[in-house]
Amino acid sequence: MVKLAIDRILDTLSSCILCVDGNLSLSYVNSSAEILFDNSASTLLGKDFKQLFSQVEANTITDKLPRLANQRQAMTEHDATITLANGRAFNADYTIYPLDDTDGSDNILIEIRPLDRQAQYLRDEVSHLQKQASQFVARGMAHEIRNPLAGIRGAAQLLEREIKATSLKEYTDVIISEVDRLQTLISNMLGPNTIINKKPVNILEILEHIRSLLLAAGPDQLVIHRDYDPSIPEMQADKDQLIQAFLNIAQNAVQALGENGEITFKTRVGRQITIGQTKHALVIQVDIIDNGSGISAALSDTLFLPMVTDKPQGSGLGLPIAQEIVSGHGGIISAESSISGTTFSTILPLEIS
Question: Are residues 260 and 341 part of one domain?
Fold first, then answer.
């Protein structure tokens, strides 16, 4: 019971906690470490500690650990650059603690505290607030435009009734059809107006539904990989709205692909994550990753604003609507892009059903 309680306490920490034995093989990892190294505890346990980090880039943590283990010394380093085996680099504070075990074992505790993760969430939140303000202005303009359009359509219908010549009615038909098109566009700009109806939903079922839709309607060569955490519990959310949000993001990914396009749906659980002013013990992170050519630098800061797109057939409304839905669920969307592809990361509070 005591060990179970300690494990639960360590799993609530945002710091990554690892323990290695005298051979520097991993003997314990907490949940935050599983997320950082993107592997389950069962996969990590028994691995050589050094295998978690790049063998090309220098890492002081792997250089100093053997020496400190031999000397049984503790140390802390601040703002160290750490590069993982997958090439991902980040800054962190880390501390190495030799443990005084009565059984004579040479266990060492390592605590890694990434510095960039929460800072990135903060930057995303500030950017999100700015985009919300822009969307508010756009929605206000859309409301103001909607009423004159209704008047134009009504006047065109009255004029059509008075016109006798069939050839002239073609002009009123054009006016009415174009007004209808603009009305549809404005309705899309205004986004979903329905109340969020939260019920227990399974995020993996939502993603599988979207995967089926994309494979049915997308190009024949489209490949969609799954990288799911099957242990994610049901959450309280509006299933239909989340389907719309993730479908918009996924369709954006499909449009960015080349001939040999691949997309990955990835889910993970995050712990002790702050969104806005609220700290959540558990969150779901859904990554939709494509291997397209990336987002142009000119669009990177305005990606979630209405009518912004670099796609010939795009409306520029899919991502803003997705963001509004996710925001309504207390979450946030961010994008990270390079010439080798784009990752849209959605963070949603895990409200257990």
Answer: yes
